[in-house]
Design a protein that fits this description.
By secondary structure, the protein is an alpha/beta fold. It has 16 helices and twelve strands. The chain folds into three domains: 121 residues, Probable tRNA modification gtpase trme, domain 1 (Gyrase A, domain 2, 2-Layer Sandwich), CATH 3.30.1360.120; 129 residues, Up-down Bundle (Four Helix Bundle (Hemerythrin (Met), subunit A)), CATH 1.20.120.430; 163 residues, Rossmann fold (3-Layer(aba) Sandwich), CATH 3.40.50.300. Helix content is 49%, strand content 16%. It has a six-stranded mixed beta sheet. The protein has a six-stranded mixed beta sheet with strand order 8-9-7-10-11-12, sandwiched between helices.
């Protein structure tokens, strides 16, 4: 990837839309775009940041491609801190492809993933954390993830990182001053040891608390898992199909039609989740069915939200009893009593009431109760998000690895804080380097490429 190249790429998502935006960045951005406009002088004289109307054409044939608006940006006052042009054209893949083809003929190349933001980082416009926050904003799946990304984008992390760096620098200075000028040092050796020890302990505690917040948030990033569980032929697949609005799972009167789990992304009131249809619990007739049942139990134990589907015309089975007993205190279980037209056992409803379990009695054939079920899932999703609503400075795997490095170095430094000051200083410096790497003082190209490869084209 050559940073001296002039690059171009669509910045809007693929597909049909009213308008689309194409970005151009690099030292020849203005000259290359000017070649493709009929109103060349108008473009060259246009004030920076002013949106004006142009006719975009093929400079070799003069064939018109589209009527567009365009904005010129001059370095460093642009997203990438380079000369840039943003072209707004009519939406649609054919229009975009035609304009991109014309632009590439002028000598620029197609931008790589995240290359505009990578150039902004390399040009000192943004830090690595802010760069990653941009990607997190784009890909946020719920309001909490969005708010956390926004906090990092606007630099909320800077205060905390500054505090950590200041504490490390002070501890390192204290040690090295004592080592270099022991006679002139006003601080006694025992006091040096205690101050360094306390600083490391405080830093370790703060980083561990941030990591704990990160673990809570990571669940929301992968998506809350909603598992539909229950015995065979209880109506799990029917409920799954109702909630996703299609016939994804096979429904048949014969038991055991679902032998593995099915997953589908759903959105309820703007909250995304992964809905899972599991195999029916109970005894297995063959090995492949046993594997499916084992996976169903894994979801019954580990899913964030569980929906137990039980048939109105049957007694509670041992498997259902186990699920209710295990999850009763977790407030993550909702019971669907299906086949309400076949109700023969009032004791089943009484049992649910006695155990204070939320339930609804419905007929899955007619899709009634769908709104009620969706409402409960939505409330549980909102509660799950609120429970994990703690913003962490650590937002991704790269941050987690650097946090692990910091903790490891601090713990090793702690071991030497009462003796072996040289080694304590060495490990504290390593922890300081990890903090600097967190904000983007990284030297390895492969690390940079890994950060920006997570972005979409055009960003």
């Amino acid at each position: 990837m050559n940073i001296s190249d002039t690059i171009a790429a669509p910045a809007t998502a693929a597909g049909v839309g009213a308008v689309a935006l194409i970005r151009v960045s690099g030292q020849h951005a203005h000259a290359c775009v000017e070649k493709c406009l009929r109103e060349k002088e108008k473009f060259s004289r246009a004030p920076a940041h002013k949106l004006l109307l142009y006719t975009l054409l093929n400079p070799e044939t003069n064939d018109i491609a589209d009527e567009v608006t365009a904005v010129r940006y001059s370095a460093p006052h642009s997203y990438s801190a380079e000369d840039m042009v943003e072209i707004i054209c009519h939406g649609g893949s054919v229009v975009i492809e035609k304009i991109m083809s014309i632009l590439l003929q002028t000598g620029m190349r197609y931008a790589g993933k995240g290359e505009f933001t990578q150039r902004a980082f390399l040009n000192g416009k943004v830090t690595a954390i802010k760069s990653e926050a941009i990607n997190d904003l784009i890909n946020s799946k719920n309001t909490i993830a969005y708010k956390n990304a926004l906090n990092n984008y606007f630099g909320d992390y800077e205060t905390l990182l500054g505090k950590w760096k200041e504490a490390l620098v002070e501890a390192i200075s204290l040690i090295e001053s004592h080592l270099e000028f022991p006679e002139a040092d006003d601080v006694a050796e025992g006091e040096v040891s205690e101050r360094v020890h306390d600083t490391i302990a405080e830093l370790t505690g703060e980083i561990e608390r941030e990591m704990e917040k990160r673990k809570k948030m990571s669940v929301l990033e992968r998506g809350v898992v909603v598992a539909i569980i229950g015995n065979k032929n209880a109506g799990k697949s029917s409920l799954f199909n109702i909630l996703i609005g299609g016939q994804r799972a096979i429904v048949h009167e014969k038991e055991g039609t679902t032998r593995d789990f099915l997953t589908e992304k759903i959105s309820i009131r703007g909250i995304e989740a992964t809905l899972v249809d599991t195999a029916g619990l109970g005894s297995a007739g063959e090995e492949i069915e046993e594997i499916g049942i084992q996976r169903a139990w894994e979801y019954a134990h580990n899913a964030d939200i569980r929906i137990l589907v039980t048939s109105a015309d049957r007694e509670f089975t041992q498997e259902e009893e186990n699920i209710m007993r295990r999850t009763q205190q977790e407030d993550c279980l909702y019971c669907i009593v299906s086949k309400k037209d076949l109700v023969k056992n009032a004791d089943k409803i009484s049992t649910l009431k006695r155990r204070n379990l939320q339930y609804t009695l419905i007929s899955l054939i007619h899709e009634e109760g769908k709104t009620e079920v969706q409402g409960w899932i939505s409330n549980r999703l909102e509660a799950e998000i609120e429970r994990r609503n703690e913003s962490s400075i650590f937002q991704n795997l790269r941050h987690e690895k650097l946090a692990d490095t910091m903790l490891g170095e601090l713990k090793r430094a702690q071991e030497y804080s009462r003796q072996g000051y040289e080694m304590a200083s060495f490990h504290l410096r390593n922890a300081l380097t990890a903090i600097e790497d967190l904000v983007g003082n990284v030297a390895h190209e492969d690390i940079l490429n890994n950060i920006f490869s997570q972005f979409c084209i055009g960003k």
